[in-house]
TrEMBL record:
Keywords noted in UniProt: DNA-binding, Pyridoxal phosphate, Transcription, Transcription regulation
Domain HTH gntR-type: 12-80
UniProt family annotation: In the C-terminal section; belongs to the class-I pyridoxal-phosphate-dependent aminotransferase family.
Organism: Collimonas pratensis
Transmembrane domains' residue ranges: none
Protein name as catalogued: Bacterial regulatory s, gntR family protein
Molecular function GO terms recorded: DNA binding; DNA-binding transcription factor activity; pyridoxal phosphate binding
Amino acid sequence: MPPIGLDPHSPLPPQQQLCRLLQQAIQQGQLAAGSKMASIRALAAQLGISRYAVLAAYEELAGMGLLNPRHGSGYYVRINATPPRQARPAHLDQVLDVALLIRGLVEPNNLLKCGSGALPKEWLQGLDLHRHLRSVAARPGANVYCYGSALGYAPLRDVLQQRLARRGIDCSAEQILLTAGSTHSLELLIRCCCATGDTVLVEAPGYYNLFSLLHLSGMAMQAVPRQADGPDLDALESLLRGGLRPRLFFMQSLLHNPTGSSLSWSKAHRLLRLAENYDFTIVDDDIYSDFATDQAPRLANLDGLQRVVYLSGFSKTISSDLRVGYIAAAAPLLQTLARVKLMISITTSEFIEQAIYQVLTHGHYERHLTQLRKRVGEGQDSMRQLLSTCGWHTFAAATQGMFIWCRHPAGKDSLLLAQEAAAAGFWFAPGSAFDPDHQPSAWLRFNVAYDTPELRAWLSTI
């Protein structure tokens, strides 16, 4: 690193002076592309300034596209480092289409939500949430007027640490950050780990709300086809060997949305080797985790949260409205996520977190899960038999969870099918919504909890 001298009489604070000097050194070639920057501690000691000032300068340079932060390793000069790029225009037409799709799902209407991503409320009411909410509100220590803590309600994080341990995911409660649901978790990770124009990997088909978040953030998405046992790793390895260098890979190991498929052990091991060899982080969204067993393949179980960030929550098994999710990650990344959370939302609702804690510890939650898994399993069998009788082709031979991903026997465009279904009183998301580029698709997502006589009658006519 070239000699750096800060002016103690300058009106600029040390971090701004340091940022300008390093920016000039990088753009003039005094710092070689790919070279590692001095550690934050060492540079702070050398210049006689705080470590925070060095970190702020490095983060600013990373946001300008000049440095590449690598968690656990440090900061590196980007290859072909360039001045800050203008954000590429977001595909607002596609984003708005997805927003309208979600609006049709969440707002009151007369459509039966046969393609919904959630269970009917009747399947969840056995938890008696009203009683738990009243119980929490009646406590003298209930936090209904003040902010919660940065990481979230500590007793709930302790319970989550124990639940993760049963899944073989070893972490402390300080490595768990509570969020306002999985979408909030994804937004925090995008803001923390990516800069405008970065390349990220997504599964195709995949979660349409994730695609919209990435579009709005100016990310370049590269699709990896989803197969019945996980992502197509031959296709992924070909992309990586061809020079693709993604920052993150957003995926779902278990009970994938929309296909319902789960990752095999062999693919899990191979995927982690690719992440290590090509230096990218895997974001594993395990929002449907409680429909699977604790022994099911989870990347965080094998990796120990080194190259895997683990997401989950309770919107699918407790309530879509009491939005509590969580992130488990390596300690340095977790602390960064907590700081960004403070900037975006200050804190999450401790009252709601206390209510979820009450359900998990005093609400017979495990018995509730057993009943849900039984009903969902019966729904899978019944819906698969119905679709087979009607000639539909299903994506995977056998799945757990609430989804079946299937194709009309004549290969009819699913957008037309969704429109016909709406006219008949049923809500479906067309397959194109689950494609990163919104390409036409013949596939539809069915929720097995909505097997009704009316749906059976309609399926027999199309």
